[in-house]
Specification:
Blueprint lengths: L1 H10 L4 H12 L4 H13 L3 H15 L2 H13 L3 H12 L7 H10 L2 H15 L2 H14 L4 H9 L5 H13 L3 H12 L6 H13 L3 H18 L3 H18 L2 H12 L5 H13 L3 H14 L1 H14 L3 H14 L3 H13 L9 H4 L1
């Protein structure tokens, strides 16, 4: 009953589904459908570490290929690709087919030659362009000198934007910015163009030392993203790139003027954090603290952990603990708790060692 109720709640987007799945597993650990639903749900929620033990139990009990594949996916996403490869290798003896998950595991393990061979076979067998892309990605790492010619050969028959963009990145990694920009041109002129392609153009221009053109393209892209505020993750990436460009190509005061001219009037937390990070990077900790605090007051969930991290780095442990306790006690959704916990555990200093954060 709890498993069935969990599925209903999950379809409705109700986070109480996790509680129902948990009850179902607790009441009947041998209920394979409950184990499967629980593992799938927490994996989709961005918590692969919690999915791993349940997926292990499920795979061991059921012996089904799809359950082994679920375990492989959970292990890979949890940062254990070698364990995932062992599971896949064992399941392959019972008919586990080569698929995208296997290719991803090989890539995560750094087994690029095996990745190249497996992807090439599947591409020749199926004609699926995704396998062609994996084949080229693996080749770029196993034999980087041979990769450009293969990219050009395949792009001559498959003008796929994803493959072409990978080729752009390969040329850029090789320091061939002008060639990379040339290859990016067809994407920019097509309906497949996305904001991250425009960011790549900005960074290539900057890498070529054409700072006026780069600044102009950055400005247009930032104005566009601030107008629509559609993808805040991309906006954060864009502003991080822009800060690095300004600090590399302009004197500090001029860089400050350019950045403030674009962001100082915006109250979106991403903009506030970008200003805070800029001042932290140039060593103006008083101004940085002010912007971090504004970000915290604007959006406790996004700005709070960043403000707390800054306080801890400045030795203000009391303020750090106070802010993080407020953030943790104010969270209502499981996915937000997972997100904040991940941020805390990834911090390179002492946030995760503060016992006061976990007592409540």
């Amino acid at each position: 009953m709890h498993s069935y109720l969990g599925r209903i709640l999950e379809k409705k987007g109700d986070e109480r589904a996790l509680g129902e799945y948990t009850r179902a597993v607790s009441l009947d650990p041998g209920n394979l459908e409950a184990l499967r639903s629980y593992a799938s749900y927490v994996l989709a929620s961005g918590d692969p570490w919690r999915a791993v033990p349940v997926a292990k139990q499920l795979s061991a009990q059921s012996g089904r290929t799809e359950d082994a594949l679920l375990l492989v996916r959970a292990l890979r996403q949890a940062g254990m690709p070698e364990d995932a490869l062992l599971v896949w290798t064992g399941a392959a003896r019972h008919g586990m087919p080569v698929d995208s998950e296997y290719i991803d595991v090989l890539f995560a393990c750094g087994r690029y030659t095996e990745m190249v061979n497996a992807a090439r076979v599947e591409y020749e067998r199926t004609g699926d362009q995704q396998y062609a892309r994996w084949y080229l990605l693996g080749l770029a790492r196993s034999d980087p000198d041979a990769a450009p010619a293969e990219y050009e050969r395949i792009l001559a028959t498959i003008d796929d934007p994803g493959i072409r963009f990978d080729y752009v990145r390969l040329r850029r990694e090789r320091g061939e910015n002008a060639l990379a920009l040339r290859e990016l041109g067809p994407i920019l002129a097509s309906s497949a163009m996305q904001p991250f392609h425009l960011l790549e153009e900005c960074e290539l221009l900057a890498g070529m030392g054409i700072k006026e053109d780069a600044e102009r393209h950055y400005r247009r892209l930032i104005e566009r993203e601030l107008e629509i505020l559609g993808d805040l993750v991309f906006l954060d990436r864009l502003l991080t790139s822009y800060r690095g460009f300004l600090r590399t190509h302009y004197p500090v005061k001029e860089a400050e003027t350019l950045l403030a001219g674009k962001l100082a009037s915006h109250t979106e937390v991403t903009c506030l954090l970008a200003m805070a990070s800029f001042y932290e990077e140039i060593g103006d900790h008083s101004e940085s603290r002010s912007w971090y605090y504004r970000a915290y007051r604007s959006d406790f969930l996004t700005g709070g952990p960043e403000y707390a991290r800054f306080c801890e780095h400045q030795g203000d442990v009391r303020e750090c603990e106070k802010v993080m306790l407020y953030v943790l006690n104010s969270i209502k959704k499981n996915r937000d708790l997972i997100r904040v916990a991940s941020m805390v555990m990834e911090d390179t200093r002492a946030l995760y060692r503060m016992p006061a954060l976990w007592r409540d």
